[in-house]
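Q: Give me a protein?
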Amino acid sequence: MQRSPIQIGTINLQNFEVPPSVRFGGRYRIMTHTLSGGTRILERLGPDDGDIEFRGTFSGPQAEARMRAINNLRLTGEVVWLTWESFRYPVVIKSFMADYHSPWWISYQIGCLVAHQDGAASPQSLALSALVSADLAEAVVAATGTSIQLAPLQAALSTANALTAGTSDQTLAIAAVASSRAAIGQQIAVQTTALATPFGTGAAVSGYGSALRSTVACAGALAAAVNTNSYVGRIGSRLSA
């Protein structure tokens, strides 16, 4: 970083006070639900900024007074703006450590807690994400052992803005729900037609065992499809709402 002005609160750092670099960044929080078979449902919780840290040296006849001004921000715990170059963060000074060499030379290091994280999910979106994730997990379990494919729906719901109204990601997610329900509807129609056929029609008595097993399998597949469809349908309702 160039030795350009950096401001914290109303205090503009200058000369040796300006840090040679600023350390910042963080992580993205994800809750992972691992289902049987290795399938994973990702619950995206939003960004989690780490502390912003930098160091420098107060120098000259005003070194002690300026050091006290910075330390007072730590003591009050108020939220202030930290700005440098094109960066701007609302922060609380979490830590301030000074090495007092003399009244005109005091080195320091600061750790700032970011008070608000841009892009962080609201409580409402977190609640929606949890509900959609739970429904998707139940749908995957219900479809286990059937020919129903939910991978495209899982992929659409894992995109960054699938739950954000008006985004292309949400539009694609809603389309994926509709496509999944259409495919599930076909499965329901096939199994319903099979079950509507009178038992044993055209089969010899010796083939009744096989016919019975087929009927039971159709009934199980129909129940699984209907159950899966209910969860996928509820996901669609949550997305649209």
In short: The chain has five helices and eight strands. The mean pLDDT is 85. The longest strand covers residues 87-102.
